[in-house]
Amino acid sequence: MSVVVSTDPGRLGFDPARLARIDEHFARYVDDGRLAGWQIVVTRRGEIAHSATYGQRDREAGTPVESDTLWRIYSMTKPITSVAAMMLWEEGRFELNDPVSRWLPEFADVRVYDRGSVLKPYTVPATEPIRIWHLLTHTAGLTYGFAQVSVVDGLYRAAGFDLGVPPGTDLAAASAGLARLPLLFQPGTSWNYGVSTDVLGRLVEVISGQSLAAFFTERILRPLGMTDTRWWAEPADAKRLAALYAPHPATGQAVRADRIGQAALAEPSWHSGGGGLVSTAADYHRFTQFLLRGGELDGVRLLGPRTLRFMTRNHLPGGRDLASFSPEGFSETVLDGIGFGLGFAVVLDPVPSRVPSSVGEFYWGGMASTAFWVDPVEEITALLFTQLMPSSTYPLRSQLRQLVYSALVD
């Protein structure tokens, strides 16, 4: 499968000369060494208006980015896990207000960080159970060890939950281990990005009776024709996998980050619903078209359209945005004017962020600077793939929006 321009962009309301600015702009990142390579796909009304690759998937090997390049999508796994959970919700298997402990008893008596240090933390009982909607909206009080912002982050790292899990840990054991760590805040009282979607993946396993990998393959990936999305790149496909890079602290040049990047070449001990997948532009394009079409693609329906509209509304209490409901900033998205739904960031008002978009647009990205968005108003989807971590290094996502929307002239 590949992603090629399927029609005259002008017929879709785009100015081709303005679309060409996308490639000219992002080529500069490669030409001056800040990125190794990239792939970008823009569609409207289900047709591909712009598709381009530039640079190298592995700069040291001299291999170019190609249409079938495999990319670590990291947190772009989360929307797929959220879809999996809501498929079970549509079957009546749970309600969003249900306590997570109904299926994962390890979360029955969670405690919340109150004060103190990593060496001597003080905790208090949770006054509210973690509910399933808390996991979907990142309001459960769970965090990431690699965030390195709070004392609770430090407790995660001390327990072996940094960029991954303790060696040999599967998803069930990871869920149990995370439940023993204190929450950052009382459930439902704030927003914090963390391992909520990994716990949600474990919930999918328990409720469905299948491993998360099996559920993904049988219920989502195969039906949607996402045949190149997997948990690791096997030896036969290893050369298609883009190398992972990080900026040199002094020069800003992209340098290889093999210590982290090599993990995608071996079968993982756990299936991270929050960040475990490797995919291609063609595959994730199909996923975004499924979202744009309200839960259906090529005659295969996984979700009802009203469910998808419900998922992409702002579910933060009081209708607040992330700027007013999050204790810390976060690199995957701007916070002003942005809400959060059931698995996606949602644009409430594009003006406060100073980034063009439509009210109701939903999106997310990954740690290695990948990103996607779906704009139901303009019927646009956009995909950005590269492999530079962290995603906060350069404003690639906002710049892509700027260039795409300025090319729309109808």
TrEMBL record:
<protein>
    <submittedName>
        <fullName>Serine hydrolase domain-containing protein</fullName>
        <ecNumber>3.1.1.103</ecNumber>
    </submittedName>
</protein>
<keyword id="KW-0378">Hydrolase</keyword>
<dbReference type="GO" id="GO:0016787">
    <property type="term" value="F:hydrolase activity"/>
</dbReference>
<dbReference type="InterPro" id="IPR050789">
    <property type="entry name" value="Diverse_Enzym_Activities"/>
</dbReference>
<dbReference type="Pfam" id="PF00144">
    <property type="entry name" value="Beta-lactamase"/>
</dbReference>
<feature type="domain" description="Beta-lactamase-related">
    <location>
        <begin position="22"/>
        <end position="397"/>
    </location>
</feature>
<dbReference type="InterPro" id="IPR012338">
    <property type="entry name" value="Beta-lactam/transpept-like"/>
</dbReference>
<dbReference type="InterPro" id="IPR001466">
    <property type="entry name" value="Beta-lactam-related"/>
</dbReference>
